[in-house]
Amino acid sequence: MLEAEPEVNDIVNFLVGEEMMALGDPECLHRLHHDMTTKDWFMALRDLEAYMAERKKAYAAYADKDKWYAMALTNIAMAGYFSSDRTIEQYNKDIWKLK
């Protein structure tokens, strides 16, 4: 996978580059690099390019403050009923019986 996506390869190799080695624990960084390049159990690299593209879109939207405020307000208004709300309501009804 890394060979096919040079930008992802550069990011992963940054973990074991001079700059990171000077700042971090070399053993931990080498272990992390090894795990990401041979295992990637959590498939973090598989979605990295898509994540970076979406992050750029989010930054662009944030730069337009009016658009960002409208999006934020819409998000809040559309959030709906959370499962924790239902759980607390049920606890109150069945156990606490508060008014």
Protein described:
The chain is mainly alpha-helical. The chain is built from 6 helices and no strands. Helices cover 72% and strands 0% of the residues.
Beginning-to-end CA distance, first to last residue: 58 Å
Helix content: over 70%
- Identify low-pLDDT runs: none
Characterize the biggest β-sheet: none
DSSP summary, beta strand count: 0
Number of helices: 6
Essential attributes:
6 helices; single chain; mainly alpha
Summed up:
By secondary structure, the chain is mainly α. Helices cover about 70% and strands about 0% of the residues.
Question: What are the SSEs and their pairings?
Answer:
Blueprint (H helix, E strand, L loop, with lengths): L5 H9 L3 H6 L2 H13 L9 H16 L1 H13 L5 H14 L3
